[in-house]
Amino acid sequence: MSCRRVFRVSIGLLVVTLVLTPLVGCGPPTRKARVPFPTVPDPLAETGAERDVEGVTAGPGADLSGLDLTREDFSGLDLSGANLEGAVIARSWLSRSKFVGANLAGADAIAVNAYRTDFTNADLTNASFVGANLEEAILTGAKLDGADFSFTYLRGAVLDEGATSAANFAGATMPDGTIGN
User: Fold this and answer.
1) CA distances from 27 to 23, 31, 34 (A)
2) For residue 144, is it left (φ>0), alpha (ψ between -120 and 50) or beta?
3) What percent of the chain shows pLDDT beyond 90?
4) DSSP strand E in the chain: where?
5) Long-range contacts of 102-106 (CB under 8 A, 24+ apart)
6) How far, in Å, are 27, 33, 34, 136, 169 from residue 30 at the CA level?
7) What CATH number should be reported for the domain whose range is 47-181?
């Protein structure tokens, strides 16, 4: 057999192998089973997680009242019992944080990302969460008198019964949020 013929046969086999190999084992795509949505999301902040923000240690019981903390990253921090009264935390990242029993009365939290954040028993009186992402957030026991949640995304959020009458939820998206008793 000539060299050319061997070369052509080799190239032909290579092309056939490359073309047919992806087709082996093909079929309809396998679909993953949909995981049911949890009733009470589990924030991932470690107890006691803290870090320095604007020269102040942001952690459990911290006093951040009245500070301008716009665009700060509080993700994964434990701010349980912290005082953020009147603080400006607009456009900040609060994802997977704990604000259990924290005071956010009058806080400016416009457009924050608070995915899976725990606000259990927090004081959110007159706080503004306009345009915020509160997907899977826990707001059970939170004081919501006069709070503004206009145009907020609340998919999977957990709220107490009657919470929607205490605060403004005009234009908010809450396709499958849970309202407890």
Assistant:
1) 9, 12, 20
2) alpha
3) 56
4) 51-53, 56-58, 138-139, 158-159, 178-179
5) 103/65
6) 9, 9, 12, 28, 40
7) 2.160.20.80
Confidence label for 154 from pLDDT (cuts 50, 70 and 90): very high
Q: Evaluate whether 104 touches 6 at the Cβ level (below 8 Å).
A: no
pLDDT at 139 over 80: yes
Would the pLDDT of 15 be above 80? no
Structure tokens at 145: 């008198």
Q: Which two tokens stand for residue 129?
A: 């969460």
Which position has the token pair 């301008």? 68
What is the distance, to the nearest Å, from the Cα of residue 16 to the centroid of all Cα atoms in its chain? 48
**Of all helices (H) and strands (E), which one includes residue 13?**
helix 3-20
